[in-house]
Amino acid sequence: MARGLLEDDHEWRICLEEAIAMQPGMACHQLLAVILLTDEVAEPHLLWDQFKAGLCDDVKHKLYHMSHYQADQEIPEDNIYDYGLWDLNRILVGIGRSLADFSLMSLPQQQWAYRIPNPLLQAEQYDVDEMATLVDEQRAIYNPDQVYKGDWSGTL
Q1: What is the DSSP letter of 1?
Q2: What is the pTM of this model?
Q3: CB-CB contact of 98 with 40 (8 Å)
Q4: Hey, what's the torsion of the CAs at 150, 151, 152, 156, to 10 degrees?
Q5: Domain range list for the chain
Q6: How far is residue 25's CA from residue 32's CA, in Å, rounded to a whole number?
Q7: For position 4, what pLDDT does the model report?
Q8: Residues contacting residue 113 through CB under 8 Å, at least 6 positions apart
Q9: Is the CB of residue 101 less than 8 Å from the CB of residue 94?
Q10: Average per-residue pLDDT for the chain
């Protein structure tokens, strides 16, 4: 077989089974990305289909944490798997590839990058007066070097 492709991806299946049994699903996305990058996977879409439940077992929690859904709101399974595909693709893009490079692989349908809270934008929501009060309260435990470097003449 060309480039050593395995007909049934058996070794990759065993690898993913063992990893998913020991790690949260999203932690295994990097492993799947590495497996895909070997270019020895005969049917990458079948690997995804077989292991997507395990690979996305913690996505529901992530989506609740990102405040896209209320705790009592059911998240559609398609959204869970779509976010999993998006995260896998994000990893691949960081390495110079994408899911589109792999035969018959599903592609994420939603623009999840726009739905992830930006910590810099969230910082604008802080109450400046409250933060100044907190700094003043903590100043008593600063060492002399911190007091000098943190002296903003009373302004933040």
Answers
A1: -
A2: 0.69
A3: no
A4: 40
A5: 2-116, 126-156
A6: 10
A7: 46
A8: 86, 90
A9: no
A10: 82
Percent of the chain with pLDDT over 90: 49
Q: Which of 30, 1, 28 shows the shortest CA–CA distance to 16?
A: 28
Token pair for residue 93? 């893009």
Write the Ramachandran bin of 37: left for phi over 0, alpha for psi from -120 to 50, otherwise beta: alpha
- The b/e string for 69-93 (b: 16+ C-beta within 10 A; e otherwise) is eeeeeeeeeebbbbbbbbbbbbbbe
Backbone angles phi, psi at 101, to 5 degrees: -75, -10
Q: Does position 42 have pLDDT exceeding 50, yes or no?
A: yes
Q: Which two tokens stand for residue 8?
A: 């049934």
> Do you know the residue count of the chain?
156
Which two tokens mark 141?
């435990």
Note the Cα 147 to chain centre separation in Å.
38
Q: Give pairs for 132-136: CB < 8 Å, separation 24+.
A: 132/156
